[in-house]
Amino acid sequence: MTKRVAVAGATGKMGQLAIRLIDEADDLELHAALDSRSSLDEMLGADVAFDVTHPGASAAIVEFAAGAGIPIVVGTSGWSSDRIAEITQFVRGHDDAGAVVFVPNFSIGSVLASSFAALAAPYFDSIEIVEAHHAGKVDSPSGTAVRTAELIGEGRGVAGPVAAPHADQRARGQLVSGIPVHSLRMSGVLAEQRVILGGDGETLTFTHSTLSPSSYEAGILLALRRATEVSGVTVGLDALLDLGLPGTIR
């Protein structure tokens, strides 16, 4: 059966990419393309919505779709764990609410790198994240870095917090789930993340580099196709890949 997709943020790069993928897919069709002047009512009748707007607009879009019973995939950056918790309460408080799938990064390679780091995390007490994005990215740390730090924290379990010496010094990075995160915003970079794990006499580094927006295509299609199969609030493309990591569905 063909799924009708409403795209919010249709004029942006990710929105245009999603629309192209929808047009090329046999099992998807474009229901509505929303920009900043569109009424959210244009989403009504869609089987799934796709939000790639900006942090100031995203919450209203998500609440509208979920409240209308439309599953929504959220690719907008800037969603903290506290804001996701608010949406979780919103969904739980509305009968027949649509599922909400938060995807910090649609690159399957990025998701796997973060997952591998989480699996290694219990064996190293020194762990830090360095992430770099283009100069125009407005939020830091990135949603991918936040998600990676959360997975590492969950993956450590009884091992407890990592060693983060001199965390009071600003140059030591921002602590996210107890993990120091360092953000670079500069020209010449699209996206890259390194998770560095240090042990006795050795380091282990997981690096993922995004070289082209085409790396997001498989993840976008996966999320759109699977969003109608889940319920409640799901965080991370890893949950849709069934990698078995903890804490992905709420």
Q: How would you summarize what this structure contains?
A:
The chain has helices spanning 13-24, 55-67, 81-92, 108-120, 143-156, 217-226, 237-240, and strands spanning 3-8, 28-34, 48-51, 72-74, 100-102, 126-133, 174-176, 179-185, 191-199, 202-210, 233-235.
List keywords for this structure.
250 residues; alpha/beta; Rossmann fold; 2 domains; six-stranded parallel beta sheet; five-stranded mixed beta sheet; 7 helices; globular; cytoplasm; DHDPR_bac; NAD; NADP; amino-acid biosynthesis
Describe this structure in words.
- By secondary structure, the protein is of the alpha/beta class.
- It has two domains: 3-102 and 214-240, NAD(P)-binding Rossmann-like Domain (Rossmann fold, 3-Layer(aba) Sandwich); 108-211, Dihydrodipicolinate Reductase, domain 2.
- It has seven helices and eleven strands.
- The protein has helices at residues 13-24, 55-67, 81-92, 108-120, 143-156, 217-226, 237-240, and strands spanning 3-8, 28-34, 48-51, 72-74, 100-102, 126-133, 174-176, 179-185, 191-199, 202-210, 233-235.
- It has a six-stranded parallel β-sheet with strand order 2-1-3-4-5-11, with helices on both faces. It has a five-stranded mixed β-sheet with strand order 7-8-6-9-10.
- Helix 4 runs parallel beside helix 5.
